[in-house]
Amino acid sequence: MKSTISVGITGMGSSIPDKVVTNDDLSKIVDTSDEWIRTRSGIRERRIVDENTATSDLCTEAAKKALIDANVNAKDIDLIIVATVTADMAFPSTACIVQKNIEATNAAAFDMSVGCSGFLYGVATGANFIKAGVYKKVLVIGAEVLSKILDWEDRSTCVLFGDGAGACILEECNDGYGILSYDLGADGKSGHLLTQPAGGSRMPASHKTIDERLHYVHMEGKEVFKSAVRVMESTSLQALKKANMELEDIDFLIPHQANERIIKSAAKRLKISDDRVYMNLDKYGNMSSASIPIALDEAYRNGLIKKGDILLLVAFGAGFTWASVILKWEK
Ligand SMILES: CC(C)(COP(=O)(O)OP(=O)(O)OC[C@H]1O[C@@H](n2cnc3c(N)ncnc32)[C@H](O)[C@@H]1OP(=O)(O)O)[C@@H](O)C(=O)NCCC(=O)NCCS
């Protein structure tokens, strides 16, 4: 039976490290330039954590802000989902560490590894627990400390990424608002394009894996670029179809913030004008699963999005994975 419960975002929060690393700073450690990075990616600077900060620390700050914004007590949270590829450690999950930190003693908790599409996978998963009548309040966090798995000698990857966390609270909302549709997908055959090869059961940590720099991000950028543009268009169209909507109905596109050229190409294919596309990657780089919740939080706090706006959130990432969510904003 189809659920009649509508689910929406009732609170948002983010956490961004203080330390700014500019393109000029990077040109002192690898053979690159501000001009190359800006023209190829649109990124001008990114935020990087200090050596003592881990993903759960950013998650905790973002979660506390989201709880305040939603006016929800941590004890009332039923489920915590953390989407990340940079968990504090293999286990326990980062979600369990957050559960302890915010004292959400009644919550179940788990991590999701979905690359940059993780936050949207988390929102879809959390919403379905509420729609099924199982839970009432779900905390979803997208968070990454990518700086700790980047190869700072590899100019083709280290210039593109940054650290951050964004969180939202999902709850039942007024009929017709909230999540109108979503589309999730994966293509494991393309997984080799973006990997952190070592540190798991296939290639456990050893002196050899460290010498060969296999604990860092490895990426075939050009191939990722091509797939990204394609899937951002196709998943968006799928979500629109499921919501019974047209492209003209979309007030704002809030895309995964990987590369300005990818976003502009996808928006062009979707015929969404630049003034309806939210971009902040110039300030933060690609924060993987944290990109969309941080962009959404900023757009909401800056008063750009208002009650009743229809938002299209769309992401692609390691796996390969993709996801899109259509949301009627109610806050
Ligand atoms: C990585 C990316 C910016 C590269 O842009 P591009 O236009 O495809 O550039 P190319 O791969 O053609 O590289 C061109 C040259 O620049 C060099 N280069 C790579 N990184 C560089 C850097 N930081 N500074 C200067 N030169 C660089 C390359 O070595 C290459 O040199 P070569 O032609 O002598 O071999 C682009 O492919 C991209 O953004 N891909 C998607 C990545 C992404 O979004 N990943 C996350 C997915 S969630």
Explain what this protein looks like in three dimensions.
This protein is of the alpha/beta class and about 325 residues long. About 35% of the residues lie in helices and about 25% in strands. The chain is built from eleven helices and 13 strands. The strands form four sheets. The chain has a five-stranded mixed sheet with strand order 1-7-6-4-5, with helices on both faces. Helix 3 packs across helix 4 and helix 8 runs parallel beside helix 9. The longest helix is centred in the last third of the chain and has 23 residues. The model has no long low-confidence stretch (mean pLDDT about 95). The structure holds coenzyme A (COA). Coenzyme A binds next to helix 2, helix 6 and helix 8. The site of coenzyme A has 19 residues, from helix 2, helix 6 and helix 8.
Number of helices: 11
Q: Which range best describes the helical content: under 10%, 10-25%, 25-40%, 40-55%, 55-70% or over 70%? A: 25-40%
Total strands? 13
Q: Detail the poorly predicted runs.
A: none
What strand line-up does the widest sheet have? Answer: 1-7-6-4-5
Query: Which word captures the global form?
Result: globular
**What Rg is obtained from the alpha carbons, in whole angstroms?**
19 Å
Largest sheet: 5 strands, mixed
Which ligands are bound? coenzyme A
Average residue pLDDT: 97
Structural class: alpha/beta
| First and last CA, distance | 29 Å
Strand content: 15-25%
Order of helices and strands: EEHHEHEHEHEHEEEHEHEHHHEE
